[in-house]
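Methanethiol oxidase, pasting as requested.
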Amino acid sequence: PREEVAYVTCTYRETCIDQPDFLATIDLDPRSPCYCQVIHRLPMPNLKDELHSSGWSTGCTCLDNITTKRTKLILPCLISSRIYVVDVGSQCRAPKLCKMIEPADVFWKCNKGYLNVPRSLPNGDILIANVGDPAGNAKGGFIVLDGKTFELKGNWENECETPPSGYDFWFQPRHNVLISSAGLVLKRAGYGFNPDDLKKGVFGHRLNVWNLSCRTLTQCFDLGEDSLPLSVKFLHNPDAAEGYVSCALSGIVYRFYKCEANNWAVEEAIRIPAKDVTGWIMPKMPAFTVDLVISMDDKYLYLSNWLHGDIRQYELSKTCKPRLVGQVFVGGSILRGGPVTVCRDEELKCQPEPLVVKCKRVYGGPSKMQLSLDGKRLYVTNSFYSTWDKQFYPNMVK
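Structure tokens follow.
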């Protein structure tokens, strides 16, 4: 059935507003008088958490049973390393906070911090990827919550298997595999983007292949020091042994696939060229692809290009060579009349116009995305990370 509400994480960090982050509930029923409006705000009990990603406590589209009722929303915090569990089953239009796990518990029990993406495991437990250790140094891996009590169980992977950095992950139970991406060193990049950091190991560049049942690291692919692989997605078909990872700084999307036995391989599938510019932090503006979404029928792939400002739709009839079939600009840094001038562009003939919706200028660029179950609507947020938002899109933060 068509979704009736959407839940959006909203942060006040770096806005000079001293209020806690909140979870907004948006009315998506076109018959409602409040259609496309915020109908409820659930403030968190603490300040400067930086709500970033969210995930359901039950159900996974790569499992056989996708009818499991989703009643809890997991909200890990990128900066505070706190975890909130929100009840969205009792009152979906007015959710309530039902549990909170403090950072000290995560630090002491797991030696992990800076929590990011949560997903449900096949056994019902919740797996949360982390970006660093409690001090902000790079440290990948995962922590586990009990799927029923939401108690913190501990680390998922064997300690000796901890990768140098982490960000996102996805898995395919039928192939006994979990694939995770790298992230960035928030101790350094957390203060803003610095081009000098590209050669200093601040940005991760590995794609990691795990044995799902043994929780061991079996393969690693180095995608280049200027890659920064972020979003990872498998095809939804539970038999499919392939998926994609988007690299934010290189503008490349790699396809990963099972080649023989339990070995995996990667190949370049999409390359978005950088633009020669003036009035920006570097002479070339890369395609900063934050999120990657695949339609439920595995026919289309969507990419959000946070810096350039476009959302791209690719057709997947040939998974090894996705074909660009749609593109729309919803903000970005290269808009006409802005401080950035594009000197050379391999794709566009002119700079796009600013986006205005209901007489309001839209600032920022497309970041996190969610596709409706019927594939007809794409929901997009415009914030990537508060400090970088303030650096690249100060008008949005205002």
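Note for the archive: The first strand starts at residue 5 and ends at 10.
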